[in-house]
Specification:
The protein has eight helices and 13 strands. The protein is of the alpha/beta class and 321 residues long. It is 36% helix and 18% strand. The protein has helices at 2-27, 46-57, 106-119, 151-159, 238-250, 266-288, 293-299, 310-320; strands spanning 66-71, 74-78, 88-92, 97-100, 124-129, 146-150, 174-176, 179-184, 187-192, 204-207, 212-214, 255-257, 263-264.
Length: 321
């Protein structure tokens, strides 16, 4: 009898392991755990390409909230309640806390506030909104705080009726145009936009003293190597993304926080730019040859692209020039 019981327990344990394995496998997206392209962009080594692919492979649309320290006074809040929850930054100033971006639900934002209370008793005094999408968690913050966003993001937030709609009490109280250096509660931060990238309202928060840049949707780890999120309907463009990537590389930064997924180094960003630039160059060359969009898609191998599709965006932009 004991032997039968042991066998039953072993079978149950094996079933559990297989169930977890199937669950993990089910989370894999078409751009994850795929072979590297046979031809890499010029200047990109296999090791560099694989390192970037590893960042894509470890991305999950659903993951628990984890708060970790990045640098002196700066923390990353990754994951949380819900699906595809964006990253947030936490910066501890002299008298209060500055938040970088927001979660996409009030419950997810409240969970971050609970974690902040474990780090410091200081209150949240400011929120830096890096784009107008999925900012609904901001409504969990105390009323009356300073809210800073790009001027284009503010305009969209004030008229939006979509899923990112937020209460008027949380509309930005201050805006940034192209490039401003500010000191908020003793913390120096440069707020800039090199060009419209994912949207016209993107904003980068660069902390020069810590060499950390929170780059909003300029970097996302839920798209294939040579693709990235671009919303032409919101004023975004691939050419603008390329300009932003070049500008970010010129900063004296060594840590780049993506909007979705892990943290990148300068080398990782350089690799990402090489892949997107290479795709741009190939599409541009085929457009010059008179190729149709379908012919261009068929000529470029790789995992299925995500919507909004980078090849389609590049094709449209090149044709319009």
């Amino acid at each position: 009898m004991k032997t039968l019981e042991k066998r039953a327990l072993c079978i149950a344990a094996l079933c559990t392991v297989l169930s977890f394995a199937r669950s993990a496998e089910a989370q894999h997206e078409p751009f994850q755990h795929v072979p590297l392209p046979a031809e890499l962009p010029a200047g990109v080594s296999v090791a560099q390409a694989q390192k970037l692919q590893d960042l894509l492979d470890e991305f999950r649309y659903e993951e628990p909230l984890v708060v970790s320290k990045l640098k002196d006074k700066i923390y990353l809040a990754r994951g949380g309640v819900g699906r595809n929850v964006p990253n947030m930054g936490i910066v501890v100033g002299q008298t209060g806390v500055i938040l970088i971006d927001n979660k996409n639900s009030i419950d997810a934002e409240k969970a971050v506030l609970a974690e902040i209370a474990k780090i410091t008793p200081k209150p949240v005094i400011a929120s830096l909104v890096l784009h107008s999408e999925h900012e609904s968690g901001i409504a969990a913050l105390p009323a009356g705080l300073q809210i800073i966003a790009h001027e284009n993001a503010k305009r969209r937030m004030e008229v939006s009726t979509e899923r990112d709609k937020i209460p008027p009490a949380y509309f930005p109280t201050s805006t940034v145009g192209k490039d401003e250096m500010r000191t908020i509660d003793g913390i120096r931060v440069r707020l800039l936009q090199f060009a419209p990238a994912a949207t016209a309202g993107d904003l980068i928060a660069y902390f020069p003293d810590q060499k950390v840049a929170f780059v909003s949707s300029v970097l996302v780890m839920n798209f294939p190597l040579a693709s990235t999120v671009i919303h032409p309907d919101l004023g975004g463009s691939t050419s603008g993304w390329i300009e932003n990537a070049r500008g970010l590389l010129a900063l004296d930064a060594d840590t780049y926080v993506s909007n979705h997924g892990g943290v990148l180094t300068k080398e990782d960003l350089r690799t990402k730019l090489a892949f997107v630039q290479d795709r741009w160059n190939k599409v541009k060359a085929m457009v010059a040859q008179g190729k149709s969009l379908e012919q261009v898609k068929a000529a470029i191998p790789g995992p299925p692209d995500r919507d909004p599709k980078t090849i389609e965006n590049i094709y449209s932009e090149v044709q319009s020039k």
